[in-house]
Amino acid sequence: MSGVTTGEGGGAKAVPTAAELDDMSPEELARLATELDDVVVQHNAPKFPVPGTRAEKRAERTVAFWFVLSALAALAFVVAFIAWPHEYVPPSDPGYTMYSLYTPVVGVTFGLAVLSLGVGVITYVRKFFPEEVSVQQRHDGPSDEVARRTVMAQLASAGKDTTIARRSLIKRSAGAAAGLFGIGLGIAAIGPLIRNPWKDGPDSPLWVTGWRPENGETVFLRADTGELSEIRRVRPEDMEPGSMQTVFPFRESERGDEEALLHAQKASDAPVMLIRLRPGTPVVKRAGQEDFNYGDYYAFSKICTHLGCPTSLYQAQDNRILCPCHQSQFLATEYARPVFGPATRALPQLPITVDEQGYFVARSDFPEAVGPAFWERRS
Ligand code: FES
């Protein structure tokens, strides 16, 4: 038996029973959905009322072109991501050009795949979706059972109107584009997880920094002069009490080697803050690191343990090291432990001393990982 529902504005409509709904065809259900929703279709015209015309074929090829282009770009992205040489090559070595093109090639092919896929979808909608103008009254409250069942039929009907079911060229090209694009995304997401950055054990590049002495060679603390070739090694008398300067690792074997100097200075874990406290400043040292300082001189990693910004500010009045990114503060007089802000780990301290010629040198690498708490942690 049919029920009655009241529409917007008080108009009553006959609502079919479940049995009547079961007997209805998808087209009838879709029509019923528009009636129950107070939708009035003012105009509905398919873009190609006569199938198989040259205009329709041309439109179909246009859409397929974009999907094929997307598929090819996605394929090129996958190949480039896996096979293009991406290991660092110095500018003076053969292979540098190919290495320097890695990021542009990966970026352009990925961007083209996304762009072409989007253009293909938009072109399909514009060229094949029927032209329709409908007007619907606003409804309040949740949808009833009838509305829920009919809306599915309406969606199916709308899908049928797009004529996608009989367009195998577009379906195949779109499937290839979406499939290859998805594979590319998957590879880009999983690729970095497959490479094991710790495979070299304790010598893995992520465990060590440029401060590690190699082949028994001394590692000096070099001042930042702004000129790569202008080497100035730091001595205690170069600094006033209550001052700070940024230093980088330097080995005599690197003198004159622009590439090595550049690498030593640009490495993200290399910068160190060398701080000279005022004489007599009370200090709390970390257990096991009691001899890491040289008199009033303390060397801490400059890489913030929150998210890796350079903690470039030293406030001599209260001996605080400040990170400008999220305002973490570290106490230089207490092994640079965090006292304010989001950082939870002390800045690693570099063990230093002075050699027989009076220059600061690193006694070893940092004893712990440099940088944010989620980077390079052993435990
Ligand atoms: S990176 Fe230093 S406080 Fe966030």
Question: What do these coordinates show?
Answer:
GO terms for molecular function: 2 iron, 2 sulfur cluster binding; metal ion binding; monooxygenase activity; oxidoreductase activity, acting on paired donors, with incorporation or reduction of molecular oxygen. Residues 269-361 form the Rieske domain. The chain crosses the membrane at residues 63-84, 104-125, 174-194. There is one protein chain. With 379 residues, the protein is α+β, with helices and mostly antiparallel strands. The chain folds into 2 domains: 54-194; 220-362, Rieske Iron-sulfur Protein. The chain has helices at 18-23, 26-36, 54-83, 96-100, 102-128, 145-161, 168-194, 258-266, and strands at 3-6, 12-15, 39-45, 131-136, 219-223, 243-250, 272-276, 297-301, 313-315, 320-322, 329-331, 337-340, 352-354, 360-362. The protein has a 6-stranded antiparallel beta sheet with strand order 8-7-6-5-14-13, with helices on one face. Strands 9-10-11-12 form a 4-stranded antiparallel beta sheet, with no helix packed on it. Strands 1-2 form a two-stranded antiparallel ribbon. The longest helix is centred in the N-terminal third of the chain and has 30 residues, at 54-83. It binds FE2/S2 (inorganic) cluster. FE2/S2 (inorganic) cluster binds at residues 304, 306-307, 309, 323, 325-326, 328, 341-343.
Topology record:
Blueprint: E1 3-6, E2 12-15, H1 18-23, H2 26-36, E3 39-45, H3 54-83, H4 96-100, H5 102-128, E4 131-136, H6 145-161, H7 168-194, E5 219-223, E6 243-250, H8 258-266, E7 272-276, E8 297-301, E9 313-315, E10 320-322, E11 329-331, E12 337-340, E13 352-354, E14 360-362
Helix pairs in contact: 2-6, 3-5, 3-7, 5-7
